[in-house]
Structures are given as C-alpha cells and as structure tokens.
Amino acid sequence: MIVKKLHDVGVRSEHAYMAAFGSIAFSFLTWLTSKKMENAPLSRADRWGIFVGEWAPTFFGLGLALARYEDDPSRAQRAGGFGGLRETMDETAEKVRS
C-alpha cells in the first residue's frame, strides 16, 4: 500500500498539503515567468501553468489518504489497501439507504 509506505518513510499529510499549495503557487509562477520571458504566444504560458496546476489535486488526494491513515492505520489496512475508501463507500451507501 503506497500510503503506508509513504507514512513509513516520514511523509505526513501536512507535507502533501504543503506540496499542493506549493504547486498552486508554482503554477502561477511558471505561467508568469513563461509569459514574461519567452517570446511565445500566451497559450504556451497557459499550458505551462495548467501542467503544473494539475499536480495540486494529486497532492491533496495524498494528503487526505495520509490523514485518514494517520487517524486509524488499522482501518486503512482492513479496507484492502485503499486507505479506507471501500469502507467509507459502504458506510455512505448505508446512510443513503436509511
């Protein structure tokens, strides 16, 4: 399970959240730098900004998975390695049914 391995090497949810916010700032910075420094159309700067901006959701997702693992590692293990996703979906479905 990747979340367990990340946790074991010292990566915490706060690190993933910082990386997500950092990638948002870096996205703006790459867009601005590309727009000012390159002799290229604006669309090229937009593509750079979008490329880096796509990293943020991945880091936020990892942060959520790590936070859930940090709260209850045994629950994440029981859910088959998906950070409790399957168990959460079952609980949500049960609430919807009732």
UniProtKB/TrEMBL annotation:
Residues 75-98 are annotated as: Disordered. The chain crosses the membrane at residues 15-34. Residues 87-98 have a biased composition (Basic and acidic residues). Keywords: Membrane, Transmembrane, Transmembrane helix. This is Uncharacterized protein. It comes from the Bacteria. The lineage of its organism: Bacteria, Bacillati, Actinomycetota, Actinomycetes, Pseudonocardiales.
